[in-house]
Amino acid sequence: MGRDVVVTGLGLVTPLGQTTESTWNGLVDGASGCGPITQFDPDEAGLRTDIAGEVGTDTGVINTDILVDDRTMGRYAQFAVTAAAEALDDAGFDPISPAWNSDRVGTSIGSGLAGLSEVEAAAGDRPSPSFLVTALTNLAAGHVSICIDARGPNRAPGTACSAGTHAIGAATDDIRRGRADVAVAGGTDAAISPLGVGSFEAMRALSSRTDDPEAASRPFDADRDGLVLAEGSGIVVLEARDHARERGATPYAAVSGAGWTGDAHHPTRPTESGDGLRRCVEQALSEANYEPTAVDHVNAHATSTSVGDAREAEALESVFASTSTPPVTSIKGQIGHTLGAAGAIEAAVVAQTISKGIVPPTANYETPDPDCNVPVVTETRKNEIDVVVSTSAGFGGTNGALVLEQP
Amino acid sequence: MSDNQDVGARVESIVADRLRVGQEALNDETRFDGEALNAESLDMVEVAEAVEADIGVHVPDEDLEEIETVGDLRSYVVERA
Which residues of B touch A48 (CB under 8 A)? Predict the structure, then answer.
């Protein structure tokens, strides 16, 4: 199996705030990051949808002005650089200190739509020489590695809404196998643009509850009618346990398993009965050497779509058939769906859940849906949490799951 | 050709185009979920979006779910065009 991997730093840029602390406090206090779109005029763009989860203009923990260059970094990459700076600082690393062993630091940051809004803005004009580097999927990972001098494995999964989870799973393997001692891993997306919102609207994937943005994203609720598109980034610092111990770092959690499956079924629709996600969670638990009975909590992918949530609930029901499904939370009720960032933001939230013994709620869950037969957490609760499963699923039928546990 | 006939013909042409079948294979009784069209939900959304772009009639999800045949869609759109 190789070396144990622990999480020693967290960085978040979300619609609830541009730090881990503000995001976490927003989640446990029941705040909402969903509201009217301000980045463009939805009416002018001919869209019915005028709500989203936008990242605000408050500042992060670290002054990233010196790192963020908007001429060469797309918005998705700027989020990742900001979150990575916080995560590294949180882990107690300083990339300009002589102790920073840059060859042994990996970067693994996924994105679903990456520079979609940059492509949209550039279309029709002669591109600027820096256009491509503001748009390529791997440039969040690229820019972060340049900013922090990380010369180890460099990777950018483009697996839609599973990208963040896959990035963390793959970086965990880098450390287990000895390719790196430290990895800066996560996901990022920033697709609140006419094309980004319009694409999901055209598929009828978005909630039409536009008169009540805070109530629009309602995972597992019987009255859910689609997702709220959101933007942000989640970054975790992963580290070999012995490496963290030697430098006296206190881990939040350990990453003990990852699952990877494909549905091989349909471009957008999950397999009947959620079979692909079920196999994915089972694989992650098997890698972590846990029976389903060991799991205390599930941080679900549930995006508030009619079919997706029901299939995920079926997958969980079948994984936990031998026992009862542990309490399930989807933080998308408050944050919305951040696409490729979602799994990484959720992994960081799970690390906090384990470290603090606090489970955040699922916002807007009011009416149980017989098609979603899982115990949904509706109020913030405090209890000892040892083992958590976090799930992701993306277009193309790509699934990811992580098992995190007490370090 | 009256406006209604025109709109009706455009609906049929959109269905044929989006679902990649010959227009001669369609009549008012043709079911979207039947053998000829074999349309799933994303196909129906595709048809509805094309109707909105071309004819300017929005078919919301709850109404789209009730539309079973080409004739259902034609009369829905003609009534609202």
Answer: 58
Domains of chain A: 5-253 (3.40.47.10), 257-405 (3.40.47.10)
Separation in Å, CA A273 to CA A260, A301, A310: 18, 15, 8
Q: Do B45 and A225 touch (CB under 8 A)?
A: no
Q: What is the ipTM of this complex?
A: 0.72
Q: Which of A203, A225, A267 sits opposite B45 (nearest CB)?
A: A203
User: Are A234 and A164 spatial neighbours (Cβ–Cβ below 8 Å)?
Assistant: yes
Answer whether A268 sits within 8 Å of B61, measured CB to CB: no
Q: CB under 8 Å, gap of 24 or more: what pairs does A96-102 form?
A: A96/A149, A100/A149, A101/A181, A101/A182, A102/A149, A102/A150, A102/A151, A102/A152
Catalytic hit among A143, A166, A243, A301: A301
* pLDDT tens by residue, chain A, 407 residues: 689 999 999 999 999 999 999 999 999 999 999 999 999 999 999 999 999 999 987 665 566 677 888 889 999 999 999 999 999 999 999 999 998 999 999 999 999 999 999 999 999 999 999 999 999 999 999 999 999 999 999 999 999 999 999 999 999 999 999 999 999 999 999 999 999 999 999 999 999 999 999 999 999 999 999 999 999 999 999 999 999 999 999 999 999 999 999 999 988 889 888 999 999 999 999 999 999 999 999 999 999 999 999 999 999 999 998 778 999 999 999 999 999 999 999 999 999 999 999 999 999 999 999 999 999 999 999 999 999 999 999 999 999 999 999 99
Answer whether B61 sits within 8 Å of A204, measured CB to CB: yes
Task: Tell me the shortest Cα–Cα distance from A269 to chain B, in angstroms.
Answer: 9
CB contact under 8 A, A268 and B42: yes
Q: How many C-beta neighbours within 10 Å does residue A44 have? A: 8
Specify whether A301 is catalytic: yes
CATH number, domain at B37? 1.10.1200.10
Q: How many domains does chain B have?
A: 1
Q: Are strands A105-110 and A328-329 parallel, antiparallel or unpaired?
A: unpaired
Domain extent for B76 = 3-80
A161 is catalytic: yes
Mutate to test the interface with A, among B18, B38, B42 (most CBs of A within 10 A): B42
